[in-house]
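A common beginner's mistake is to predict each chain separately and then try to dock the pieces by hand. The better habit, illustrated here, is to supply every component at once so that their relative placement is modeled jointly.
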Amino acid sequence: MEAAIITGAADGIGLATARLFAARGWRVALLDVRAEAVEAHAAALGVEHLGVRCDVACEADVLAAIEAVAARFGRIDALVNNAGIGTPHIPTLEQGLEGFEQALRVHLSGTFLMSREAGRAMLAQGGGAIVNLSSIAGVTGLPRRNAYGAAKAGVISMTRSMACEWAGKGVRVNAVAPGFTATSLVQKLERDGSIDIKRLRGRIPMGRLARPEEIAETIVFLCLPAASYVTGAVLSVDGGWAAFGDAGLAQEAGV
Ligand SMILES: NC(=O)c1ccc[n+]([C@@H]2O[C@H](COP(=O)([O-])OP(=O)(O)OC[C@H]3O[C@@H](n4cnc5c(N)ncnc54)[C@H](O)[C@@H]3O)[C@@H](O)[C@H]2O)c1
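With all components supplied together, the output reads:
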């Protein structure tokens, strides 16, 4: 039975992805800083699944988590680097270094550490697939989101770099770039006044936020043999956000 690791699996896109892999017959290791939540979700999915406390930005946590998963499953066929934080939107002139570096630590260092260790196991077993969570913030310019945007653009660069490095050894590495998705991360940004969801909908050609399950479908696809010739790609799952380049609201520009 194939085995997948999903980071940030206590909630949102990560949890939806873990559920989808499990429904497709994979064993799933759900990793998160929220230990109780991932243990409960893993137990709810079935005894073959595993919940592991892991801060992806902490090297010791990552090494211990990969060891625990390898000991339990004996293989790692897919890694989804999904753990993330929705940093408050702050004007650049008011951005503190600590907040900036925190965004880089979780998204960039976390993706690097998890990929390095899971990649080691995948190369040794002769194949695997890694999917990294980027964002529309990584492919377009979002004001007041310099740390988050830099981290998500860095994730794309790392995706391409690792994809080329490991392509000849059967390890594929891709990124998805979601648009605004209805998760607690986005609810929190709305609560702290960083975003206005009603206004955002007008900027989305499809006129609505994504459901976490829609992002999960794309992530799982990229891990399956159906995507066997796809590596180094960045797949937008954004309701048309990145495609839209006209003046004004996307909703007003459509038919
Ligand atoms: N929701 C969106 O609109 C959206 C859009 C584009 C990209 N993304 C990206 O998708 C990913 C998932 O986002 P979401 O909306 O599901 O968020 P979410 O807040 O619902 O879930 C994120 C999970 O990551 C966990 N986490 C945070 N820091 C961690 C760390 N250091 N180590 C381990 N786990 C950690 C949290 O505890 C949480 O369970 C993130 O990388 C996010 O940047 C989200």
